[in-house]
Amino acid sequence: MRKLVAICFTLLSLLSAETAHAGHTEAEGVAPQKALNLLLEGNRHFAKKGEVRNLSRHASVNYRKSLATAQHPFAVIIACSDSRLSPEILFDKGLGELFVVRVAGNIVGAHELGSVEYAVEHLGARLVMVLGHERCGAVTAAYEARLSGSKVEGNIGSLITSIDPAVTAVMAEGSKASKAELVERCMHKNVEIVAGQLSNKSPIIAEALQKGEIRVVTAYYDLDEGIVTVIK
Predict the structure, then answer these.
(1) Rounded Cα–Cα distance for residues 4 and 16 (Å)
(2) Cβ–Cβ < 8 Å for 101, 116
(3) What is the uppermost EC class here (predicted)?
(4) Residue 80 CB contacts under 8 Å (≥ 6 apart), including other chains
(5) Which of 47, 64, 88, 110 could potentially form a cystine with 226 if both were Cys, beta carbons 3.0 to 4.6 Å apart?
């Protein structure tokens, strides 16, 4: 009897794991527009309800184990390291659904580009989102450094250097807007430049875009409202 119960338990465990894994397999190769819709639907629920449904559901032992040998994220998110900007929470998604690349100022260098290439080429993600956000400290620091003409030393200086093209472009417009408005424009410009760098600096991403295999979008997160808005 005990042996029979043990066998039944084993079969049920395998079935549960296989069922959960089927969900991940479906995520492989999700069309870009559908992937974007999934992200925005999850964000609207988070912003309106203040709930994160999928994190708790995806914390189950069976679900976690079903991801142990494979992953099929349906989207890549390039986001800032800001502690208020966790993509899994903002988009109400859980383990195995998003391939997240985070660095202050949501910029991309060789390591970040390589990470995106891996997600696109080997994991089947077809949507790449560059996600900027309101009151970004890294972009603000780049703006202030340019305004004062001071040089930021150390490794932080490399972040400022990467963001500076966006600040330079906004300042070249000669606007008399307030500092807050100008910094906001810098944040949007930075997202735009980073999105362009994905294809300019990565032949793999450029080829996937040319073939229509992936889509790159830019977006902006409002810290006050909790809403992610697609820019382009």
Answers:
(1) 18
(2) yes
(3) lyase
(4) 102, 103, 104, 105, 106, 131, 132, 133, 136, 138
(5) 47
Give the Cα separation of 99 and 76 in Å (integer). Answer: 5
Q: Token pair of 70, please?
A: 């494979």
Q: Where are the beta strands (DSSP E) in the chain?
A: 75-79, 98-102, 127-133, 215-221, 228-230
30-230, which class in CATH?
alpha beta
Task: Express each pLDDT in 144-156 by its tens digit.
Answer: 999 999 889 899 9
pTM here?
0.85
Reported as a single tens digit per residue, the pLDDT across 34-71 is 999 999 999 999 999 777 777 666 677 888 888 899 99
Percentages of the chain per state (helix, strand, coil), in multiples of 5: 55, 10, 30
Known binding-site positions: 80, 82, 133, 136
Please check whether residue 79 is in contact with residue 191, taking contact to mean a CB–CB distance below 8 angstroms. Answer: no
CA dist., res. 70 & res. 117, Å (int): 17
Annotated binding site for Zn(2+): 80, 82, 133, 136
Entry field: residues in the chain: 232
